[in-house]
User: What shape does this take?
Amino acid sequence: MLVPLYEAVYARLEIGTGTRLLGVGCGSGLALLMAAARGADVTGVEPDERRLALARERLLPGPRTRPARPRPAPARLVRGGPEAVGGTGRGAAPFNTVTVFGPAGADVLGAAAALAEPGSPVILAGWGPPERCATTRVLRTAAPSATVSPAAGRDGLEELARRAGLRPDGSGRVACPFAYPDMDSAVRGLVSTGLPDAPDGPADPDVVAKDLTEALHPFRRPDGSVRMDNVFRYLIART
Assistant: This one.
């Protein structure tokens, strides 16, 4: 669902050969895969072992893999946060681009920026204005106790960057519709993100499914598909 966001950022920064990219909170590795396909040397850090396992499947060739054509260099995938990258033996300031496409605190951003060369871009991203993000409205209706990342707003990303010691240097907005072929796929897709979970742990799956189905009803189309229009905002900051 966030492919348009990744594409817009990579095109603007001209990600490609010569890019040494650190993806903080890389999740299941899709954004890293897209950067590697452009020729970038990518490293991902992710605290969730389940998502990191999916990233390994996407980015690391298996022992019997024999590709028919040259493929990008394998990614470096590390469990944890930016501080865990030191275990890769790559030395000081190994990166010239940092992406943080998910929620992160100023301390995490600061740790990631410390691994990048001076002047390198650090990309932050988040939900756009609430009135333009149908998915956040669905989540807040279906799971009011869940922790839904706040909208990036007018200055939210800038304030976060400054707290991390970074200098804002441009921003943009990208339409990222969440579209599913049917209601069941929409419910499973939203549950898989972990967003409907409460702060103290996963909620009852049956209750979550029921509440999501009700909240998604206004976004169901005559053909049975479900579509929620969203806008994401990104900020380019500099170390």
